[in-house]
Specification:
Keywords: DNA-binding, Phosphoprotein, Transcription, Transcription regulation. It comes from Actinomadura gamaensis. The protein is an alpha/beta fold and about 230 residues long. Helices cover about 55% and strands about 15% of the residues. The chain has a six-stranded parallel sheet, sandwiched between helices. α8 packs across α10 and α8 packs across α11. It starts with a strand and ends in a 10-residue tail after the last helix.
Length: about 230
């Protein structure tokens, strides 16, 4: 079972998230919190596999809670719930180690897919979130966009050919197991490649690496987030 913590200051949203996740036989919501401070306490107490956090909460917000959970309970993957217009928050959360981003107005099935992906060690960005992140990074104008894309390509070129393949599939939201099956290798080999990729790209998590893959334009045309 995938043990999940849900944190949102709106009771109706929490109940809705719980109700959606309850439809999945492999997911168990073990705790709920109405603010970031309580979310951190419950994460430390229950040690869930995934914490689903709203970005905006009173007191300790989702961003600070995510950073503290990643610091004190590193086995817990963090999925952020966002609304449009929070692009800067998403970029900050990437830096704090969040592995998944979902739009509150998205399809219920996407929530289950995202939780499962993060529980399996993958990065998951809702397709809408991925598009927003890439667009936001490119919002500085044509010159800035071209500069960022060129920088991403240079970083990717420093990888080995196999690492570039793994990064492309990682950027498309595939888990290590799925990548291993695509490349006909054992999962341990993919894990080793991912660790090397994160080190070479100087990023802390798969979601940040996925953004670089998008900026560099190496995502396979038949694959996408989710």
């Amino acid at each position: 079972m995938i043990r999940v913590l849900v944190a949102d200051d709106e009771p109706m949203v929490r109940r809705g998230v719980r109700a959606v996740l309850a439809t999945a036989s492999d997911i168990d919501v073990v705790a709920e919190a109405a603010d970031g401070h309580r979310a951190v306490e419950l994460a430390q107490l229950h040690r869930p596999r995934v914490a689903v956090l709203d970005i905006r909460m009173p007191g300790v917000d989702g961003l600070r809670a995510a950073a503290e959970i990643r610091r004190t309970v590193p086995t817990t993957g963090v999925v952020m719930l966002t609304t449009f217009g929070e692009d800067d928050y998403i970029l900050r959360a990437l830096g704090d180690g969040a592995a998944g981003f979902l739009i509150k107005s998205g399809e219920p099935e996407e929530l289950i897919t995202g939780v499962r992906a993060v529980a399996d060690g993958a990065a998951y960005l809702s397709p809408k979130v991925a598009a927003r992140v890439v667009a936001h990074l490119a919002s500085g104008g044509t010159g800035a966009r071209a500069e960022r894309q060129a920088a991403a390509r240079r970083r990717v070129e420093a990888l080995t050919p196999r690492e570039r393949q793994v990064l492309a599939f990682l950027g498309a939201g595939l888990t290590n197991g799925q990548i291993a099956r695509r490349l006909h290798v054992v999962e341990g080999t993919v894990k080793a490649h991912v660790s090397s990729i994160l080190a070479r790209l100087a990023v802390d998590n798969r979601a940040a690496a996925a953004v670089i893959a998008h900026e560099a334009g190496i995502i396979p045309p038949s694959a996408s987030f989710g």
